[in-house]
Design goal:
alpha+beta; Beta Polymerase, domain 2; five-stranded mixed sheet; three-stranded antiparallel sheet; 8 strands; globular
Length: 258
Amino acid sequence: MKKQIINRLLELETRHNIRVLYACESGSRAWGFASPNSDWDVRFIYIHEQDWYLSIDKRKDMMDFAIDENELDLTGWELQKTLRLFSGSNASPYEWLQSPVVYHEISNFRERLWNLRTYFRPRSSAFHYLGLAKSSAKKGLKDGMMDIKKYFYVLRPLLAAQWICNKQTVPPMEFGPLLAQLVKDKELHAAIIELTRKKTEANEGDLTDKVPIIEDYIDSQIKTCAIKAKELLSEPRSNESLNQLFRDLLRENSRKKG
């Protein structure tokens, strides 16, 4: 599958006259709780040639493709869009840069952008993850049972919000390091480990009974994090460092094309 993904990226480069700077896995296969039939959620960041940016026309800044017969979910963001969202502490690029599954990278892109993670804003990021947790908790309920997949779409962002509230740093992308926050609560930790085992053996859409100790944790932690998040910092910064990275990458890409 990795070879198919890389070939697809090469095709996109040729067809759209772009250069892919970075491509990674972003879904459950990267988070650490994939099901046997999980999709391949590939996300990539790309750059155009310099003339593309020297235009007054408003242009599309992303590529989004329907899931194909190989269960490949492929989405790409143009570099300027990525850097703007990174500046605003959008969670996606911060997660992508931590992915354990990297399909493609040039120009040492991941390290160069990750070194600018001081743009991370704890307050807005914590509320973002809390919003995801609350939304998934509602969507996952079906006739009193819980979609196993949605259970983790509640737990992972909630653990990320907890991480931010307590550490005020970028939370890990992978579920294991996030779950380690609960290791001292042996009963809760064991219940989530068991649920993880069930998730990795279940198919998409499978349901499970609610787990009382996990439900209690979700309810209490959403309330606790909502209070703590209000006290976190959310100070904007000058975009000059990101602007400089954009200019550098644009020049480097122009030289390679030449």
